[in-house]
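Researcher: Going back to the complex we discussed earlier. I've cleaned up the inputs and rechecked each line, so this should be the final set. Can you rerun the prediction on the complete assembly and write out the structure?
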Amino acid sequence: MNQASRKVAFVFVVYLLLFGFASPSIPAQENAKPENTTTFDMAAAEEFARVFSLAVELGRRGRTEEAVKNFEKAIELKKGQCAECYQGIGQAYFQVTKYRDAVMALKQAIALKPQNEAALTNMLGVALYQQDDRRTFDEAIAAFKRVIELSGDKLPKAHLNLGYALIKADKEAEGKAELKRYLEMEPKAPNTDEVKAVLANPKMIKARFAADFKVKTVAGTELSLKALKGKIIFLDFWAAWCGPCRVEMPAVKAIWEKYKDDKNFVMVGINLDSDKKAFSDYVKKEEMLWMQYFDGGGWENKVARLYGVYSIPFTVLIDNEGVIKATGLRGVQLYNKIGDLLNRLKEKESETTK
Amino acid sequence: MVNRMIRCRLATLILLVSGLMGCGKPFDVKPRTKVDTPTATTYTAKAEVNGLMLNAEALTDEDKLYDTFDGNLILAGILPVRVKLQNSGAEKVELKSAKFELRGATNSVFKLLEAEKAYKQLRKYYGITIYNKRGNSESKADFSTYALDVKKSLAGNETREGLLFFAVPNEVIKEGNFRLVVRKLNRARSDSPLELQLQ
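Model: Rerun complete. Updated structure for the full complex:
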């Protein structure tokens, strides 16, 4: 998933946090079309509540198709007037990345003018954007514009989403204006560097930026990803107790031997041991001369958490622009990829000096 | 008037459903004592070293997990591995220093989650941010009772059973082919690890 997709996905997650399966919102009865009270009696109301809660339960279980069937049944019981049922279908399809189906359901929910229309419209925009289809970008743009209107321009993220959608639709100038507006509204947002990079070069919209961190290496050197911009960075997540990491060590050492003298190359070991002695002994034994970061947190190592590391050995390659170019490479693939990135950077440098 | 009553009743019912599912206990975890303890024969893998028998099984039945934990652990990227340790000797076995590693098909070691961390990951997956503090503590405590206690040493002739929670993405769980490697059990001073192929 690229950075822009992650942005919109993040907005969706925020939405889920607010209106997730665990707490379905009460329908906006005042805004809904009048019900046929003669046929929608108490028994039907109870049946609706049963079917609806079953659908929610199935959604929680991750059984999408069954959840959708029950939401549809609930819609029938409410004579089509159930925005949260359509919302449930939209969420269920969204979870399994069936964005086209999610879009259809969300449009039906929005047509019923629910209280959370802005949130649903935003979700619709995200689903349209996620289809990554030129034809749906215009619709996504319209949805994000509507979100701004419905929220009284109080949602900075809507400008971010709109900006990305406009750039994707080749409307760069308008997109940049929206991103600038986002930065004005959220000057301290954690993604400002990324947004600025996209503003400087809209092609970066597809890039996956490396999360910045500032730590002290075991040798006491300040290590900041931001400060290393312009270099090829290799992050190696490992632990002395990890057998597969030890198996990989000769390959990792070969990389160091090959590229250690290249001024454009930085190699950092991120250690997931909790026992400092075990870490130090291993570093000494294996003569690991590259930078090491150890905080004793084990799996909870600060940088490992930042990069969502759930298994080791794990590698991350970051290019001179701060963009993640590869993750999880090992052995020859890793060695060759680093070589490629360094060569490309050298070519770029020689072109600029000409 | 009738219309209003129906609406009120309906709203109450929905509120009750959402209240039960979202605002009270985040997860209605079944107490461990009420869940049948599986017999040793259900384990898919076993290994023995110096009188210490190790049984293990990766729990991947989503429905069974949901029925127990009121949450789909697999979807949340948590793989529970049931472990049974039987010490047939008289000497105690130190578990504190033991290393339980789950390895996958690409020979990676997966992150071992403490029960509380696994619970937190489950709650995060379901996007549950609003909950009753007491209810949350109860859910967390109930969840944690399933964990294998590795802090206390295993006394002579003691049998202990529990779950180890590993952070494994849903799609990786579906691929299967896991191995449980246990190292640094003080019985096996040579540090020759116990290795079990899980299904």
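Model: Worth noting: Residues 176 and 189 of chain B are 30 Å apart (CA to CA).
Researcher: Good, that matches what I expected from the previous run.
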